[in-house]
Amino acid sequence: xxxxxxxxxxxxxxxxxxxxxxxxxxxxxxxxxxxxxxxxxxxxxxxxxxxxxxxxxxxxxxxxxxxxxxxxxxxxxxxxxxxxxxxxxxxxxxxxxxxxxxxxxxxxxxxxxxxxxxxxxxxxxxxxxxxxxxxxxxxxxxxxxxxxxxxxxxxxxxxxxxxxxxxxxxxxxxxxxxxxxxxxxxxxxxxxxxxxxxxxxxxxxxxxxxxxxxxxxxxxxxxxxxxxxxxxxxxxxxxxxxxxxxxxxxxxxxxxxxxxxxxxxxxxxxxxxxxxxxxxxxxxxxxxxxxxxxxxxxxxxxxxxxxxxxxxxxxxxxxxx
Length: 321
Hints:
Blueprint: H1 3-9, H2 23-28, E1 61-68, H3 80-86, E2 90-96, E3 101-107, H4 121-138, E4 142-148, E5 153-159, H5 162-177, H6 191-202, E6 208-213, H7 220-230, E7 234-241, E8 252-256, E9 261-265, H8 269-292, E10 297-301, H9 306-313
Parallel strand pairs: 3-4, 3-6, 6-7, 7-10
Antiparallel strand pairs: 1-2, 4-5, 8-9
Helix pairs in contact: 1-5, 4-5, 6-7
């Protein structure tokens, strides 16, 4: 891969804040995300703790200490022999093995090029991906990515280096700036399955797959591929969604699927309620399926800062900002 060639083609800054992402902004996220991790060991309030506990516990883990059970601890870490001997519950604390493979799937299809507040879903997805890349490197792990749109899936193999991180961000920015309203490229729901197929071949075992998408186009084949990945790896899904799905504030809006366009009237309460109910049904269905795989799903909307949302969902105290 010729990083210098990629670098010349991508804009470092953008005057169209919220519509397109800028490389400099993605790099700055490295210094705004030093107080949380994507690793399984999480604060009690984190969405990654409790019922979603990592399936990789016990594999690639080194014993660190034995201590009394505390509310919120994963019961699977219970040391039953010590508990029986002392009459009080104890758990084993382990430190996760370094140099784990983290593969980040970043959706930059035309369905992501939509936003009614603050920024586009595609920008939110790009920011989330950058956060995942920088936190992966900070943990001493190897970061790789599959950045995809309707016609291309750019594969950056996992490595532990800043150069690899910049290559990932470069592909994200390049595809992000290729998005256009009214672009003739037809929607391609199957692109997400192609990305999942590639992910299954790149993470054979003991890795972490981070899927960042609005999940448009997922079907039974998607579920089969996710099952295949989850059999030997952890999965985290960041569901990007526009704030209008839960609280439409505009009276009307022109929307398009890239081929047809129509105006939607949001002034009617029944329409706003139906939009919110449809989104909740879709998201809840995905969450229930992923929960069966011990795979958490974080809902990230376009109306709020991405770092703030992820920090809150991971249980990081507000005072740590």
